């Protein structure tokens, strides 16, 4: 399991978004998109805080081609905001999220535990669809899970 730590907002996720199957590479119904999945990204100068909420789940891509997390607690799909420099692209039919230094953070369908908290700051972003987002902290840590 992976844990990410450091951003604005607090609390727990409260909304659900539709997702594509976790393994689009083997799905005949939903082919992998030709374009990289979208991400809500914070600006380089956005302040960050060490938030203490945790979101355990799996990395998913929504029907609107956005990186999100499917909560292992209640099955909700939660939109995510990421720190400056994080990126996502498609590799072998799955989304792969990269840390700012170019290291792989997680692949679509993998279990993750994200540190951070909820924020309404990006509710107008197409990936949030008017919902609060889980603001993922900036530093990735292997949680040993």
Account of the 3D structure:
Helix content is 0%, strand content 39%. By secondary structure, it is mostly beta strands. The chain has no helices and eleven strands. It is globular. The strands form two sheets. Strands 3-4-5-10-9 form a five-stranded mixed beta barrel.
Discrete helix count: 0
In terms of structural class, how would the helical and strand content be classed? mainly beta
The gyration radius over C-alpha positions equals 14 Å
Question: Which percent bin holds the helix content?
Answer: under 10%
Strand content: 35-45%
What are the segments in which pLDDT stays under 50 over at least 5 consecutive residues?
A: 1-16, 19-31, 141-145
Order of helices and strands: EEEEEEEEEEE
Largest sheet: 5 strands, mixed, barrel
The N- to C-terminal Cα distance equals 4 Å
Number of strands: 11
Q: What topology, given as strand order, has the largest sheet?
A: 3-4-5-10-9
* Overall average residue pLDDT: 78
Q: What characteristic shape results from the CA principal axes?
A: globular
């Amino acid at each position: 399991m992976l844990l990410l730590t450091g951003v604005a907002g607090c609390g727990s996720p409260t909304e659900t978004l539709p997702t594509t199957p976790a393994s689009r590479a083997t799905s005949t119904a939903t082919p992998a998109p030709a374009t990289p999945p979208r991400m809500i990204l914070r600006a380089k100068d956005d302040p960050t805080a060490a938030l203490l909420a945790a979101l355990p789940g799996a990395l998913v891509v929504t029907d609107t081609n956005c990186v999100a997390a499917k909560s292992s607690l209640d099955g909700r799909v939660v939109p995510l905001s990421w720190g400056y420099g994080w990126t996502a692209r498609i590799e072998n039919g799955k989304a792969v999220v990269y840390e700012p230094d170019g290291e792989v953070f997680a692949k679509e369908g993998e279990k993750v535990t994200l540190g951070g908290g909820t924020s309404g700051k990006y509710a107008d972003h197409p990936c949030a669809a008017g919902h609060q987002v889980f603001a993922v902290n900036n530093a990735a840590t292997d949680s040993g899970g």
